[in-house]
Amino acid sequence: MEKIKIISFLPLFVSLVFSIATASSDSGLYPSYYDRVCPEALPTIKRVVEDALAQERGMGASLLRLHFHDCFVNGCDASILLDQTTTIDSEKNAAPNANSARGFEVINKIKSEVDKVCGGPVVSCADILTVAARDSVVVLGGPSWNVKLGRRDSTTASRTAADANIPSPFMDLPALIKNFKDQGLDEEDLVVLSGAHTLGFAQCRTFRDRIYRDTNIDPAFASHLRTICPQVGSDSSLAPLDPTPASFDVKYFTNLVSKKGLLRSDQALFNGGETDELVSEYNRNRNEFFEDFAESMIKMGDIKPLTGNRGQIRNNCRKIN
């Protein structure tokens, strides 16, 4: 009799364990998504990212940025990777991405290698972007986190939505707060995710107005930047977003406290407003920044994913099946 009772409860127990394991998020995503169907998927992504950054450390910032710019346009669905066609208005041509977004060839290489080890298109391009962003941060000295997985790829893109939704380097604090709120992200997420600007460079056209017109800027810093970025021309000349553009650290926040934010949208976070205190805290406390960054990256990765039967797993990240 006892044996019959145990057996009858087994399906319920298994079902309960499975639901606990899989319902780790309202988004329907969970870290172990590929563990059984393709256990080599994540190690393969990590290997290709590490190879790419060994050739050029600056690629890490670009891969992280691709994930941001993907998630802020109709969710984390790899729409940013789609090329222009008669029916796809590519987000690559949107103002924040044109002649700026890069790393596409690394994503293509990851997709090719992952599909080889998985025996076909099992891993979505959206998940590849998400994992590559995490792996880039880790290689450059930042925190790690468990990436929730199971996103599917979009069958559309929107240049218009990219132009409207990706935060502009010219935004003030209220505009930035609204922009992030529209994505379900709060002021803490805004400050901590802006900390991704501890990596990479920005083009002259994005900070010219700031260095010639703004007053909340260190004069020597502005003077130095004017040698890189004249009032006319040199639009694509680069300046680092912080003093160590290939290391994930807190120097971005140190810059803000010193009025050396490169972009107007950076300095807006420390300019007498409600986010000043958090900037100061991250400047003082590296561990807190790392911990909060990991949490906010997971939260951003949950923005409107396509799951279940929605979307597709692309055979080629650059085009729909």
Which spans have pLDDT < 50 for at least 5 consecutive residues? 1-24
N-end to C-end Cα span: 55 Å
Mean pLDDT: 93
Total of DSSP H or I helical runs spanning 4+ residues: 14
The SSE string, one letter per element, is HHHHHHHHEHHEHHHH
**Structural shape:** globular
Biggest sheet, open or closed, and with what strands and sense? 2 strands, antiparallel
Helix content: 40-55%
Short summary of the structure?
The chain is mostly helical. It has helices at residues 2-22, 41-55, 59-71, 104-118, 125-139, 159-165, 173-181, 187-194, 204-213, 219-228, 251-257, 264-267, 276-284, 286-301; strands at residues 201-203, 238-240.
Task: Write the topology of this structure.
Layout: H1 2-22, H2 41-55, H3 59-71, H4 104-118, H5 125-139, H6 159-165, H7 173-181, H8 187-194, E1 201-203, H9 204-213, H10 219-228, E2 238-240, H11 251-257, H12 264-267, H13 276-284, H14 286-301
Antiparallel strand pairs: 1-2
What does this structure look like?
With 321 residues, the chain is an all-alpha fold. 50% of the residues lie in helices and 2% in strands. It is built from 14 helices and two strands, in the order ααααααααβααβαααα. It has helices at 2-22, 41-55, 59-71, 104-118, 125-139, 159-165, 173-181, 187-194, 204-213, 219-228, 251-257, 264-267, 276-284, 286-301; strands spanning 201-203, 238-240. The protein has a two-stranded antiparallel sheet. Helix 8 (187-194) crosses helix 14. The protein is globular. The relative contact order is 0.16. The model is unreliable at 1-24 (pLDDT under 50).
